[in-house]
């Protein structure tokens, strides 16, 4: 008996299903299942004793990957360790304190420079040479506020015109009058170029036998 069209249709209604691939996609492994192994810093990549500031090495494994984490103390912790192990003290020499008198109007350092450029005879030479030899005994005679001579690095200066311009005031300046003030000057302001500042006040040269 020949098959009818209905029989052919019934045969075509039967389907076969097959599973392709995994039913669920594979993702990253569960991080909660990772294993952590603590080791000391002897197995670090820097060697056994190359890093003394390393606390520990942690070996972690995530899936097929294995890596190491190095614990290094923070900057504050490292600093505290260094400070506790070795403390150094350094003595700092403080500069000598000196009292400063307030400048009067018209008596600043800039005003003094203007005076040195305009005054014809600050040293009071009255035509004499400022290269003449002067004895220390002659310097000692000029030890009043009206006539103030001093010796600085072998040169004799008349500092009388500089009285009101001195930052330390008249009293401090009087300590240098009538004698060699080199040591006293260097004690308070050795960085000041006194030769330039008092160039127009030069009276003469101190005799070699009395330097």
Q: In angstroms, what separates the terminal alpha carbons?
A: 152 Å
**Order of helices and strands, N to C?**
HEEEHHEHEEEHHHE
Fraction of residues in H or I helices:
10-25%
Task: Report the β-strand fraction as a percent range.
Answer: 15-25%
Largest sheet: 5 strands, mixed
Structural class: alpha+beta
Number of helices: 7
| Poorly predicted sequence stretches spanning 5 or more consecutive residues | 39-52, 84-88
The counted number of beta strands is 8
- What gross morphology would you assign? elongated
The side-by-side strand order for the widest beta sheet comes to: 4-8-7-6-5
Summed over residues and divided by their number, the pLDDT gives a mean of: 73
Please give the radius of gyration in angstroms: 47 Å
Describe this structure in words.
The chain is of the alpha+beta class and 211 residues long. Helices cover 25% and strands 18% of the residues. The protein contains seven helices and eight strands; from the N terminus they run αβββααβαβββαααβ. The strands form two sheets. A five-stranded mixed β-sheet has the order 4-8-7-6-5. A three-stranded antiparallel β-sheet has the order 1-2-3, with no helix packed on it. A hairpin with a 2-residue loop joins β5 and β6. The longest helix is centred in the middle third of the chain and has 11 residues. About 9% of the residues have low confidence.
């Amino acid at each position: 008996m020949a098959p009818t069209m209905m029989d052919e249709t019934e045969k075509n209604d039967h389907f076969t299903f097959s599973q392709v691939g995994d039913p669920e996609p594979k993702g990253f492994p569960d991080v909660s299942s990772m294993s952590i192994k603590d080791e000391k810093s002897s197995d670090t990549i820097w060697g056994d004793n190359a890093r003394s500031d390393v606390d520990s090495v942690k070996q972690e494994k995530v899936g097929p990957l294995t890596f190491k984490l190095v614990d290094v103390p923070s900057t504050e912790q490292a600093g505290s360790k260094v400070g506790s192990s070795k403390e150094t003290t350094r003595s700092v020499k403080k500069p000598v304190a000196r009292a400063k008198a307030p400048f009067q109007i018209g008596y600043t350092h800039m005003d003094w420079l203007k005076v040195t450029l305009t005054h014809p005879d600050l040293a009071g030479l009255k035509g004499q040479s400022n290269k003449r030899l002067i004895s220390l005994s002659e310097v000692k005679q000029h030890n009043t506020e009206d006539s103030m001579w001093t010796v600085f690095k072998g040169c004799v200066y008349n500092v009388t015109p500089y009285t009101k311009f001195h930052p330390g005031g008249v009293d401090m300046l009087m300590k240098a009058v009538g004698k060699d003030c080199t040591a006293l000057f260097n004690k308070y302001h050795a960085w000041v170029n006194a030769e330039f500042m008092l160039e127009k006040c030069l009276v003469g040269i101190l005799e070699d036998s009395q330097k």
